[in-house]
Predict the structure.
Amino acid sequence: MTLNANAPRAPTLIHIQGRATVKSVAERAALDVRVSDSGFEKDEVSTNAVIAVKRVQSELDQLVSRLENGDISPNSPITFYSIASLSITPGSDYDNDGNRLDPDKKLYTAESTINIHFRDFSVLGEMVVRLSTMDFVGLNGINWELTDAKRAWLDEEVRMQALKHAMERAQAYARILGREKVTCVKIEDSEEFWPMSRVMQTARKATATEAFAVGVGIQFEPGNIEVKGTVNVQFHAE
């Protein structure tokens, strides 16, 4: 049997995992607030927590801009807030050695959580300072977020960048192998790329005197959000 030296070679199969990272500055900030009080008098801790929640809600309502139908305006500095139902939990009070301080009494904890979304980061800074001065109110932290439109754009962008990375690597392999034509034959797309946002940063920290002055708050620098994506791609190199 005679082999035909001019017969076309079978295509080389190249399987690449394309990777990409796309970064964006956060457009929204979600502040988690915890309102709570503990004590042996159930009615007292409940009352303290309810008063604190109402005070926070009053502060929020002054900052929220609403449309004629009552919905929050897209241009409002605060775009959303939610208040969880108050819960009262009985427990026991122990010292550092595990001994009960008063075996005949129950320790009650009244608690509610408030989630606030900010569009205006200067208002976020002012609100952080106000809340930090309120009794029975604690701040659990800030999550940096994007609008739905920006999330959709980044999702598409990271996929395209990952595909581009795979194509560039396949072409580089093909050149080394002496192949001139690279054809994409299969793409396996990941369903979810969605990321964790980076830790919050501050551009400037107010002094103690500044922080508690009327209308003065902390100036927050929005955190960066990173989206990392992978795409599995197969190519034929001929």
Summary: The first strand starts at residue 12 and ends at 25. Residues 54 and 60 are 10 Å apart (CA to CA).
